[in-house]
Design goal:
Blueprint: H1 2-5, H2 42-56, H3 60-69, E1 86-87, E2 90-91, E3 93-96, H4 103-109, H5 114-121, H6 125-128, E4 138-143, E5 149-155, E6 160-166, E7 173-179, E8 182-192, H7 197-203, H8 208-217, E9 233-243, E10 246-260, E11 263-271, E12 276-279, E13 322-325, E14 331-333, E15 338-346, E16 350-357, E17 361-371, E18 378-379, E19 384-388, E20 398-405, E21 408-410, H9 425-444, H10 449-461
Antiparallel strand pairs: 1-2, 3-4, 4-5, 5-6, 6-7, 8-9, 9-10, 10-11, 11-12, 13-20, 14-19, 15-16, 15-18, 16-17, 17-19, 17-20, 20-21
The structure holds zinc ion.
Zinc ion binds at residues 311, 319, 321, 323, 400.
Amino acid sequence: MNKKRKQAVFKNSHKPRFQLANLKLPNISFPKLKIHRITALVFTVLVSIAVLYAFSSPSIETIKKHKQLQVQIPVQPLVNFTAITSDDEVKWKEVTIKKGQSLSSIFKDLNLSQTLLYNIIHTNKSAKLLSKIKPGAIIAFSLLDDGQFSQLKYKISESEELIVKLTEKDNQLSTEIVMHPTEINVQTANGIITGSLFNAGKKSGLTDAMVMKLAGIFAWDIDFILDIRQGDSFSIIYEKVYQDGEFLRDGNIIAASFTNQGETYEAVSYDDGNGWSYYNPEGRNMKKAFLRAPLNFSYISSSFNPKRFHPVQKRVKPHRGIDYAAPRGTPVYAAGNGTVIKAGYNKYNGNYVFIKHPSGIVTKYLHFTKKKVKKGQKVTQGQTIGTVGSTGMVTGAHLHYEFVLNGVHRNPRTVKLPKASPLAKNKIKDYLIYATPILSQLDSITVDKVAIQKHLENKKES
Ligand SMILES: [Zn+2]
């Protein structure tokens, strides 16, 4: 991440229009709309916006084109960095920096002088970056037949490569930065869940990481461990990042919808000026005070069969929580911000953690293998507080989770929680202008409900 920020150092660097990291979306500017004489009636305003938007706002198609215009064609031939290559008969030797290894020792190993290293680093600002090299970084060296230094290459960032050359003629060092621009393609996908969410994702071309990102958007509304059913469906508009014509990595999710047991949730990524976040069609943040399921569902793979788990049958006390069967070691999250009021062990609960949250809510987590927090500690939502285990009076590894509101046990999967507050009035207008075309694009790729029904019926027959 730091490396990317260093791009600004170079005069000839291509400052990316799009921030590829940090789940960010492009800054797309929209024509400023002037709505004269906004009446006191919000309804009228909304109607005006809808009309204006229909004539003025860009479609996804435009966004796509906009992005493609940003792509710069590399001026230099692109270098394959993963193997020892030879271009113009130049042989390359790759060195991966190990922990505790300095550039100085690398030069020594290659029988190159410390004076040369000093001169390289002091050639200019760009070359100075070599002195801040971190373990795992790769430097490729090209040496002449007599072992003398000829060139080195170092990938400064995802899209920039530093090349240092020593000219044979006048023995001068020169540096240049070669760009390997990345290109973002916007893609759409949808799927129906017939087995696991990961399988459905795979079928529609999503990586597991992308499926996790998708689930992460709806983690405050849907319990992805216990509430996913056959026939649930999703649609997604997302980015794929390419470099040198090849898939490099997943990008961000621009918008997504998820239908769980007949209820559809939609989210659009938007920057209200304080950073990117996901908002529902009414402009409310998708983030709420409590996660529906307080554990990392990616650990519960399709090969793990929760039905194999049988809770303890003979209970002294009535069962007042939810049991999440999960492999030992699965990280358990704090469902919301709060303070640890208990972190201990007893023969019934095993290792357990209780968290006190605002508004009279306490959440309880039992049977950990390991606790990761201490009494009195402040925790934030999503922070790992322990790992799933089978300590205490249990027959198998699982998380026992309780949600207590004003001393009364509630079902955390259905308990009504306060909605996140919507965007400020002066921001909601811009949000709707931005989100409406994206949401209609999302609707257009939404899985046909009739097709889902047919699909499921065919499945039953076969
Ligand atoms: Zn239980």
